[in-house]
Amino acid sequence: MLLKWLQKIAQWRYPLRPPGAVPEQEFEDKCIRCRKCEEVCPYGSIKMGHAEWGLKMGTPFIYPRDIPCYLCMKCPQVCPTGALEPLTDKRQVKMGVAKIDQTTCLPYSGIICRACYERCPIYREAIILKDELYPVVVPEKCVGCGICENVCPNESPSIIVYSAHQLGG
Amino acid sequence: MTAFEKFIYEHLHTLRRIVQFGTIVFVVLVPIFNKWGYNQVIGTFYSISIGHLEIVDPALVVQSILLTREIHFPLLLAGFIPLLLALFLGKVFCSWVCPFNLLAEWGDRIRKRIRPSLAKEDHLNPRAHHYWLIYGSILSVVAIFGLPLITLISLPGLITGQIADLLFFGTLGFEILFVFLILILEVFFAPRFWCKYACPVGATLALLRTKKTLKIKFEPGKCIYAQTKRLPCQVVCPLQLNPMRIDIYPYCYNCGECVDACRKEGQALNFTLQPLERFIPMDFVEGKKRMID
Fold first, then answer.
1. B275: helix, coil or strand?
2. In this predicted model, what pLDDT tens digit does every residue of B212-248 receive, in sequence order?
3. Do A34 and B44 touch (CB under 8 A)?
4. What are B217's strand-pairing partners?
5. Helix/strand/coil for B43
6. Based on the structure, what is the number of domains in chain B?
7. Are A58 and B151 an interchain contact pair (Cβ–Cβ within 8 Å)?
């Protein structure tokens, strides 16, 4: 039980913000917690933070291992305050960047797996296959939607999206 | 008086309750329909859009300008609709729509039973500058410390937001306890203090007032009472105001309970959009008292 809690704490990462989100400090000021993005999201990806987030309570988060963002680009359109910039092109999104842990990633230890490569919405651009075998993330193209993290077959995912909205910045 | 006006006056209390319960049904249905994939109406009482019509709580527009120090034009536009409504009808959002007001009215009913001694006895209304001082200090906290304070303490938004979260993901935040904290304080210590003094949402709606804004008009000649006790209009007022005096604004939120109570008594209280021709003397109440003595 305690071990599980510790594991959870060790694995905690800052969740993603919805597509089009302005930098964190500005986002906190602009977001009025109206829940429109939550309500309009057809996949249930966007969840609101509650009192445990302190001043950030009521702001939208995406936990990609639960449900990633499928880049339908509905939420930036409904945001009334400009906390989410009204992007329409999914390639302009920058929610974070995926990183592959080569020590646990299956192809790097000899098991063929293309789960993330095939599901990536920026297909064959954000994740490319080196030597037709090893997935490699192209940080400039990666939008940080988290689909790769969601589909990784390892129990603790070998590909992880690090949020562009960290605590400080 | 037209037939329409007569209908409204005769069913004032019932109509208000219908609108209030309709609001509860509405805020429950909106997340449910969105979950089913119908996105025509989205949002909560922080901000709601009906089709292409965007509406944002003007208090949050003020907060947004103070926090970001820039003006986002679509936001400004969306904040004008509630302000326009308030310009014509006063703070009717608070009395007819806000879900917290409904809770607080029930709370006050309990308060009347268990702590009737908290009722005000002096027939006076609080001075307007208390109201603006509290609102001003909330705005200063927002501007100086950069806290989104109005979002955090906006009770209509908080309640409807939690309803949306609950229906969408089955989760409730601890912040909902804030609503119960306010209710408990109101029942046991300070009746209706939140809506009357503290709420920044209501205060923003009270900012714009003209002489033609909907108001309560009192005609002393029609009043059948001698001021020897608390009159029906004062007893029913949810905010413990004295509607016979002209200084009930910006506190009064035009719920019409006093008008409703006076229908059976002498019809001295009515709504009007016209500017009041003359000020009803501030010492009318005391004057009537003297006449009896």
1. coil
2. 889 898 888 888 876 666 788 888 999 999 888 888 8
3. yes
4. B270
5. strand
6. 1
7. yes
